[in-house]
Fold this sequence. Notes:
Layout: E1 2-5, E2 11-14, H1 46-52, H2 72-82
Antiparallel strand pairs: 1-2
Amino acid sequence: MSRHHDYWGTLVYSFDLHQPHTELQVVGRSVVETSGAPNPGPEVDWAGVDRVSDRWSEFLLASHFAPEDSSWSTTRQPCVTASTTPATPCARRSSS
């Protein structure tokens, strides 16, 4: 068995089996610690969000529990255009 840290710093265990076999049963147990998504705070502008999007990309991916919302791209652009900061919810932004 070997272990390494992946791209996001998660410890990964893996193994190779080099013998012919007709059946393989793998049993594993994990303890997973999670936390909420980081809050970028009011000091981050949209360019700052783009700069950290790769670092926090796991929070941006659609999943079974959080499917992709097709309306997001049409919702995001007016928010980006209306303000230099993502800290204020889009609905609260003034159109002036």
